Amino acid sequence: MSHRSAPDPRPGVRRTVMRTLVVLAGMFAFAFALVPLYDVFCQVTGLNGKTSGSAQTLAHDDVDTSRTVTMQFITRGSQGLPWQLESDIRQMRLHPGQREEVRFTFRNLGDQTTRARAVPSVSPAEASLHLRKLACFCFQEQQLAAGEGFEAPLVFQLTRDLPAEIKTVTLVYTLYPVQQAPLARVPAAPISEGDEA
Amino acid sequence: MATHLPPKPAPQYSEATAGGMAGAHHDRPRGLMRWVLTTNHKEIGTLYLIFSLTMFFIGGIFAMVVRAELFQPGLQLVQPEFFNQMTTMHGLIMVFGAVMPAFVGLANWMVPLQVGAPDMALPRLNNFSFWLLPVAFTLLLATLFMPGGGPDFGWTFYAPLSTTYAPPSTTFFIFSLHLAGISSILGAINIIATILNLRAPGMRMMDMPLFVWTWLITAFLLIAVMPVLAGVITMMLLDINFGTSFFNAAGGGDPVLFQHLFWFFGHPEVYIMILPAFGIVSVIIPTFARKRLFGYASMVYATASIAILSFLVWAHHMFIVGLPLVAELFFMYTTMLIAVPTGVKVFNWIATLFQGSITFEPPMLFALAFVVLFTIGGFSGLMLAIAPADFQYHDTYFVVAHFHYVLVPGAVFAIMAGVYYWLPKWTGHYPHLRLAQWHFWLSVIGVNLTFFPMHFSGLAGMPRRIPDYALQFADFNMVTSLGAFLFGASQLLFVAVVILCIRGGEKAPAQAWEGAEDLEWTVPSPAPLHTFDTPPDFKPDQP
Amino acid sequence: MRTMLVWATGALALAGIPQAALANGWNMPVGVTDVSRDIYSLHMVIFWICVVIGVLVFGAMFYSLFRYRRSQGASAAQFHEHTTVEVIWTAIPLLILIGMALPATATLRTMYDASQADLDVMVTGQQWRWRYEYLGEEVAFTSNLGTPREQIAGGDEKGENYLLEVDEPLVLPVGQKVRLLMTSDDVVHSWWVPDLAVKQDAIPGFVNENWVRINEPGIYRGQCAELCGRDHGFMPVVVEAVEPEQFDQWLAQRKEAATQAAMGIDREWGLDELMTRGEKVYGSICASCHQPDGSGSPPTFPALAGNQAMLDERARHIDTVVNGVSGTAMPAFRSTLNPVEIAAVITWERNAWGNETGDIVQPSEIAEQLSE
Fold first, then answer.
1. Which of A189, B404, C118, C247 has an alpha carbon 20 to 30 Å from B185's alpha carbon atom?
2. What's the whole-number mean pLDDT along residues B462-466?
3. Where does this protein reside within or beyond the cell (chain C) (predicted)?
């Protein structure tokens, strides 16, 4: 096909193809990189009301007594898991900065040993940036034999820099069954041990 | 017919060498194998176009099933699960099987001819990227006959409906989408390599016809976002079959992440379906206005800005998932910004018409209808960009009206305009004028009857993707269904015109349209199988 | 001639919209909240801006098409660029857009302020019903499609509120700020009532919030807006807005009814009364998937009629209904139905459609399982 008087285009074509292939590989990797990036982004911006996956410390010791915030606790079950999760307090009034403790009771109503994980979500989502969990059962999976139950505390602080317009914070725990050994992707933050009081 | 035709310049090549779509060539495999093994850009272009037309009818039949069920309230013809499969398949087939391959087909035929190249840069790869498509879509259609049925989660396949709650056939759906994606990527590489390396000596980037320019930008978009789609569906595959939890809240995943990733692909994808249409229209309007395109450079810059902006607007599809205020504002502003380069394009087309010498051949009719109806789709797009208002529009028939206006009288009309425009070059004959006019007018009436009432039903509160609806939406839906049947039936005319045109008709000269200027009009009609073996001498209009 | 036709059609279409928009049922509802009014006026402002731009742009276009026809002897001019003009028509749209963005931003800010609510309601989407929970009030119930299946299939004449009616509407007080917390048990749903201008996704595992302050008492109807599977189209939302005093009464009645229902748990129930109750529960909750005749639609929704595995394993049958099946569309009815309803529906399933096991599941048995 070539009585072309133009210079041979093949080296150019090869270079173009190589470059596009590099971009392609990069974009494919980028798609997967977006998964952890998204988690980081959520934690930084409070997007989606995700809370930290590991224990945090008190941000500060002083309490802002000038305002009170309502904190609500909601527990939800999910299909396929005969567990019950209840908190001893459904709603409390507190000052930002206060260290608070709420006790949650787990109970396996089924006739088999099962495992589950409580997945937290905070609303409004911005509040999740200001909710520091010192201890939480949600950092790891729980296992309960048939009929067994246990009590675990949630120790938390709403930091003083909670935006003034947020008057009510709702913390929801949804219990999900854990089917098998967790094949799940590596969480953005390491699961820490021994937060259970 | 004759009054609309330009004077016929004498053919520059002898008729004997003519091949193209009409005739066979020497010492090559004959019959079926010729088409299976071909590496010729014209033959592959033809294959793409035939495939696309086939898919257009299959996807169209699915749409007819949907509209027949929605003709009146109540469930008459199909059950909800089958209805969901029909809407899903209609979307998938039209997007990935009809519109995208049609543009690739046009690119295959016309890009080498417009840049003065003898073929695509990578002819064998070209053959492979085409033949992936029939495999992909046979597989996709086969899912309809599998236990549990085919994909029923909408063409946007939001997790977890498409993962945890999906029918067993979803793995095949993912595989077929992977194949279609690879096909698009390979096609895009080929087009980029052709445009960047095989232009005729003397043709600078800013001398390229706009169809070539828009396709170059589209190809870059494909390279950038098809891997993201591949990534998303791979994650789905892992979630479904390997116990990961990318999108499953139970395992620490996030269903909203799916939507972010999907629309990061999805929004550039909708521009992939419209940028080449801009290119076709920008070539046709100057031809039939007999006047150079107004603002060539600003057209190129506008196309590039639209492409860049397309990466910054994805979350406007997600205004109601609970984004923070800052994100809502950001995506609202960037989305509104797209109106600026899009407006520039429309203004340029109109300025091209202004003080032209205009005739109304079938390609021009479709191109003009494109400008008007696409702009209507643009207006509803602007309304949808306003986040608070979108809270009411979102996921209603208003959205369905919007994207069908930009895709049917937008992308599809542009493809038809392109087909009517280049048919003389492909077949050596003009399309039958009367039939083409009938096709045009019936299509325009059908399209508007179908999609205009959807604005009203959407505003009145009808959600999309429902198999049955409340009584107050009944009148709109009946009109819409009648319009859809009319539009669907009129497309048979299109097939008739194309077949008649291949078989005969008034002979077209090399320069089939008087005002046409690009390189493809310097080769005979029909274009011989091999063109520009010796690069043409390209003389730019401007110094 | 053809251009004239296009011109006339276009003009008619443009002239037709505003009049049509006034008529009810053609346009977005003005709604009954301040936010819905804001959104409506925003919508109308953008709409009119688009109409004006449309008239100018299409006017210029059709003028050119008409005036510069070659058949009328027009010959083409030579110009093909004009920097000033191009800058102007880039700048003007930009200014218009800024003009549109300002009010939109203001409305959005209001919509995002859910603080200081008088009442919190948790809304949970479930394939294919809504569950409402009045936080801190111990009142919770599910709201199912109220339209009989016979109307959908075409046997009966369709009622006035076909597909937009439920067995139990969400009752809200007017004039009070109600915070709505949205979540889902299975797939993504979207809770939408056009008159309240609230549309918010309900996402499994995550909680979204929105709020509404209804100005006028009335019944407002909407639907699920996000494709959520088979019966996505049969998942309506009905909100009944009442005066605050009436609301308090209703709430008290609700609590009373819950206590009443709890009382029935301890006594021994007979087969007939359980069957009567069970048939009702089955019809409103289970029939949409497992079909009124228990034939299901395998493989997604197993048949219950003649399902030997289910009939053989009584305990597993109870477990399935109470706790649901993970990774399938079968929800847990533990918190959705009360023990009487669960016992009744299981009894029905074990005795209907020729299943005739004669098996009775007592509410006390279920209650025991739920609380042990």
1. B404
2. 95
3. Cell membrane; Membrane
CATH placement of domain C119-262: 2.60.40.420
Contacts of B311 in chain A (CB under 8 A): none
> Is B257's CB within 8 Å of A35's CB?
yes
State which amino acid sits at residue B348: N
d(CA C193, CA C238): 8
Active-site position among B34, B260, B290, B464: B464
Sequence ranges of the domains in chain B:
27-273
DSSP bridge partners of A100: A156
Instruction: Just give the CATH number of C2-72+81-111.
Output: 1.10.287
Contact, B502 vs B22, CB < 8 A? yes
Interface test with chain A among B163, B165, B189, by most A beta carbons within 10 Å: B189
Please give the full DSSP string across C210-266, using - where no structure is assigned.
Answer: EEEE--S-EEEEEEE-S--STTGGG-EEEEEEE-HHHHHHHHHHHHHHHHHHHHTTS
Fold assignment, B27-273: Cytochrome C Oxidase; Chain A (1.20.210)
ipTM score of complex? 0.89
Query: H or E element: which one contains C311?
Result: helix C308-312
CB distance C313 to C359 below 8 Å:
no
Question: CA distances (Å), A33 to each of B264, C166, C224, in order?
Answer: 13, 45, 33
Rounded to 5°, angle at Cα B468 from B464 and B472: 85
Tokens encoding B528: 């011989």
Which residue in B46, B87, B88, B282 is the catalytic one?
Answer: B282
Residue B405: partners with Cβ closer than 8 Å, 6 or more residues away: B373, B374, B376, B377, B380, B451
Q: How many residues does chain B have?
A: 543
How many C-beta atoms lie closer than 10 Å to residue C308's C-beta? 8
Q: Residue B307 class from Cβ within 10 Å (0-12 exposed, 13-18 middle, 19+ buried)?
A: buried
Which of A123, A131, A173 has the highest number of chain C CBs within 10 A, making it the mutation to test binding with C?
A123
Identity (one letter) of the amino acid at B531?
A: T
Domain C264-371 CATH superfamily: Cytochrome c-like domain (1.10.760.10)
Which residues contact residue B63 at a Cβ distance below 8 angstroms, ignoring those fewer than 6 apart?
B86, B90, B94, B484, B488
Looking at chain C, which subunits does it touch, using at least 3 CB pairs closer than 8 Å as the criterion?
Answer: A, B
Nearest CA in chain C to A179: C326
Residue from C192, C182, C253, C243 nearest C214 by CA: C243
Amino acid identity of residue B88, one-letter, is T
Question: Which residue, chain included where needed, has tokens 């508007």?
Answer: B448
Distance to chain C for A48, nearest Cα, Å: 7
Tell me: the pLDDT tens digits for B429-463? 999 999 999 999 999 999 999 999 999 999 999 99
Distance separating alpha carbons of residues C176 and B328, to the nearest angstrom:
26
Angstrom distances, CA of residue B189 to CA of A20, B168, B328, C161: 7, 34, 35, 55
Minimum-distance CB partner of C163 among B250, B295, B470:
B470
Contact by Cβ (8 Å): C208, C198: no
Q: Where in chain C is the domain with CATH 1.10.287?
A: 2-72+81-111
- CB atoms C86 and B298 under 8 Å: yes
Other CB atoms within 10 Å distance of the CB of residue B30: 10
